[in-house]
Amino acid sequence: xxxxxxxxxxxxxxxxxxxxxxxxxxxxxxxxxxxxxxxxxxxxxxxxxxxxxxxxxxxxxxxxxxxxxxxxxxxxxxxxxxxxxxxxxxxxxxxxxxxxxxxxxxxxxxxxxxxxxxxxxxxxxxxxxxxxxxxxxxxxxxxxxxxxxxxxxxxxxxxxxx
Length: 162
Hints:
Its EC number is 4.6.1.12. Belongs to the IspF family. Pathway: Isoprenoid biosynthesis; isopentenyl diphosphate biosynthesis via DXP pathway; isopentenyl diphosphate from 1-deoxy-D-xylulose 5-phosphate: step 4/6. The chain has helices at about 40-50, 60, 75-85, 110-120, 140; strands at about 1-15, 20, 25, 30, 90-100, 130-135, 145-155. By secondary structure, it is α+β, with helices and mostly antiparallel strands. It has one domain: CATH 3.30.1330.50. The longest helix is centred in the middle third of the chain and has 14 residues, at about 75-85. The model has no long low-confidence stretch (mean pLDDT about 95).
């Protein structure tokens, strides 16, 4: 049995925060603002996995009004989501993601992001694809106000409850 999920997330850029995308810290003058570390890419992937297994979204599992998740490492959040999927017998077929940001340029960090995501999803790196694009200076990403991410996952159930 195959299940598809899609996820989307966006966070505002703010001074005084680290920029973490795809589990990788990227040198930049601004970071993403959020209750957790605001890793927009890992949040989109977590939502995609939760969608594929029919378990809502990360806001349900990690609410932003719960102090337990304040400044949480999004790798930990995705790890917990992946445990839910594994408990139901799922494995990753593939994950395809797009990060939308005018700045900074993300291409040099994509190989490390792919490795990190693959490790979190217990898959080979060739099952994970990460792309980055700009909006040609249009909209909030183009004005460098924030960063958005889209993710799609295909999961296969290998024997747990569907």
